[in-house]
Design brief:
The structure is a single chain. The protein has 339 residues and is an alpha/beta fold. The protein has 11 helices and 17 strands. The strands form 2 sheets. Strands 1, 2, 3, 4, 5, 6, 7, 8, 9, 10, 11 and 12 form a 12-stranded mixed β-sheet that branches. Strands 15-14-16-13-17 form a 5-stranded parallel β-sheet, with helices on both faces. It binds threonylcarbamoyladenylate and magnesium ion (MG).
């Protein structure tokens, strides 16, 4: 199929965004920008549109999708038995990069929830995403708009590289500001549980919710036969073709370690010094948000530049660092080197 590229400057391009919304209303699949990563959107009420999303991405069949809404009015349409804690989080962090897992209503079709009785919901803060939801009048299911398993797309170019010819349209706008996918927190168990770290940090959630459990899959590989609270956590993810190693240690030790790896690329911080092999910077060690912004672009660049092996300097696990670490440990297929 031919993929229509809809170039948009901002949310005031109403005519163009209406074209995108109309494609969605008639069961089409459209990649759209959000503040986190580009999403591959389709009506959450339309089974066949959702099947097309899974087919275009090559997504594992048991991995449910996040549903995007544009207002709190839409929440009871998609979720039921909504706890007070959900409204407290919405008040503080919506619109924004936070997804809540809640009990689902029958309006959400089976192919979104993949057999679970829950639905993951978020209200994006990006103006274009919001306007497309409003113009379509639909809750939109949207996974990241990449080929399953590859680094997520933070620019329209990344989406076009992965999905051109496989989807109806791309709303091509600016690069994403956050750079990593939303924080996912489950509110259906006894205690709130962090399933995927993101720009809304565990520390921020705790200030609203009290104790938040961190699911073991955030930092650890699932064991054979272990059930995933968030099915997406069990798959190899975010990985370039190159073999990636995540390296923990000081700047001095990192430089000393990588300098005899002649055929590889080192990926590290602005603050890293004395690296004598090819080196790519993904942000400042002191500002984790910059690491999040550049992470997926750098992972894609490793392949574009033809490197077969990459050694990536690991960030700390506090704040947004946890989200970056969570993506990197998967990109590295859990190969961690401690110096
Ligand atoms: O920032 C984001 O969340 C982006 C943008 C497009 O909004 N979307 C995104 O979707 O990252 P995706 O499909 O790449 O990741 C969704 C994650 C997966 O790990 C999936 O398993 C989990 O959310 N998930 C979805 N529904 C769930 C549910 N009902 N219970 C537990 N986990 C769920
Ligand atoms: Mg994804």
């Amino acid at each position: 199929m031919e993929t229509k590229i809809i170039k948009v400057n901002d949310a005031n391009d109403t005519d163009k965004l209406t074209v995108a919304a109309d494609i969605l209303k008639t069961g089409g699949v459209v990649a759209i920008p959000t503040e986190t990563v580009y999403g591959l959107a389709a009506s959450a009420l339309d089974d066949s549109a959702i099947s097309a999303v899974f087919a275009a991405k090559g997504r594992p069949q048991d991995n449910p999708l996040i549903v995007h809404i544009d207002s709190l009015d839409m929440l009871p349409f998609v979720a039921r038995d909504i706890p007070k804690s959900a409204y407290a989080l919405a008040e503080k962090f919506w619109p924004g990069p936070l997804t809540m897992v809640l009990k689902k209503t029958d309006n959400i079709c089976e192919s979104v929830s993949r057999g679970l009785d829950t639905v993951a919901v978020r209200m994006p803060s990006d103006n274009i995403a919001n306007k497309i939801i409003s113009l379509s009048g639909l809750p939109l299911a949207a996974p990241s708009a990449n080929i399953s398993g590859k680094p997520s797309p933070t620019s329209a170019t990344h989406v076009i590289e992965d999905l051109s010819g496989k989807i109806d349209a791309v709303v091509a706008a600016y690069d994403c500001t956050v750079g990593v996918e939303s924080t996912v927190v489950s509110l259906v168990g006894k205690k709130p549980r962090l399933l995927r770290p993101g720009a809304i940090t565990a520390e921020q959630l705790s200030r609203v919710l009290g104790e938040v459990e961190i699911d073991s899959a955030v930092l650890n590989e699932l064991k054979e036969g272990q059930k995933a609270a968030s099915p997406g956590m069990k798959y190899k993810h975010y990985a370039p073709w190159a073999t990636v190693y995540l390296v923990e240690g000081s700047s001095d030790k990192f430089a000393e370690f990588v300098n005899d790896k002649a055929d590889a690329v080192a990926v590290g911080f602005l603050e890293d010094k004395n690296i004598e092999i090819p080196f790519m910077v993904y942000g400042s060690e002191k500002q984790e948000i910059t690491l999040a912004q550049n992470l997926f672009k750098v992972l894609r660049d490793i392949d574009k530049k033809g490197y077969k092996t990459a050694y990536i300097h690991a960030p700390g696990k506090k704040g947004v660092g946890l989200a970056v670490y969570n993506r990197l440990i998967r990109a590295a297929a859990f190969r961690v080197i401690e110096l």
